[in-house]
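Hypothesis: this fold can be encoded by more than one sequence.
Test: take the structure tokens below, design a sequence, compare later.
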């Protein structure tokens, strides 16, 4: 998809430039929240964070530091999107959705994911996006939509690293929907992987 807005690479350099301006004292009058910038090291760390880490950030020994970084990234992304009047690459919204999901800010995560969904024509190829969207729908008990998103993840990437988690959530949702046969079938698939892949539920 051809973008007519700001790219992630452009944003990265914008974050650096903003940081340099701050260091030079050119933005003394701006508020602290609007002037936060990301260092190259922080951008590198953020590059490896997406919905697949949901539930594991708080278990990690650097969880508090990571959450602080995620909060900073959300402020930076929101500021850049505002400055660009929303004309940014769709990947911005996907990343923003991931960051908000990891911070367990579900309304903002849903908003960002929906924006990505509306802008990206081949959204269905992005398993991490579908997984994140499914988690948000699951949180809101929108099981019909969560089931659809999770099934699409398994279709796009059958060996998805959180497949066990998906199977367990699908089993639970089918059970709630009184589709016991599907619940048993899907749940059994999830339990067959218990010893091999970590899961938030177990």
């Amino acid at each position: 998809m051809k973008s007519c807005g700001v790219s992630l690479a452009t944003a990265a350099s914008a974050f650096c430039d903003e940081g340099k301006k701050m260091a030079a004292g050119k933005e003394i009058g701006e508020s602290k929240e609007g002037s936060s910038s990301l260092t190259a090291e922080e951008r590198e760390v953020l590059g490896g964070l997406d919905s697949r880490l949901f539930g594991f950030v708080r278990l990690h020994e650097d969880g508090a530091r990571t959450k602080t970084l995620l909060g900073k990234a959300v402020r930076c992304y929101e500021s850049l999107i505002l400055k660009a009047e929303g004309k940014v690459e769709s990947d911005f919204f996907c990343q923003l959705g991931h960051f908000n999901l990891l911070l367990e800010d579900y309304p903002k995560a849903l908003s960002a994911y929906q924006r990505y969904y509306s802008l990206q024509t081949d959204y269905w190829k992005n398993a991490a996006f579908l997984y994140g969207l499914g988690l948000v729908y699951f949180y809101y008990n929108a099981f019909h939509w969560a089931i659809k998103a999770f099934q699409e993840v398994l279709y796009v990437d059958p060996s998805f690293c959180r497949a066990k988690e998906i199977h367990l959530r699908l089993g639970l949702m089918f059970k709630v929907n009184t589709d016991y046969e599907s619940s048993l079938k899907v749940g059994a698939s999830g339990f067959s992987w218990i010893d091999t892949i970590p899961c938030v539920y177990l």
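The longest helix spans residues 63-83. The CA atoms of residues 122 and 158 lie 18 Å apart.
Hypothesis status: open.
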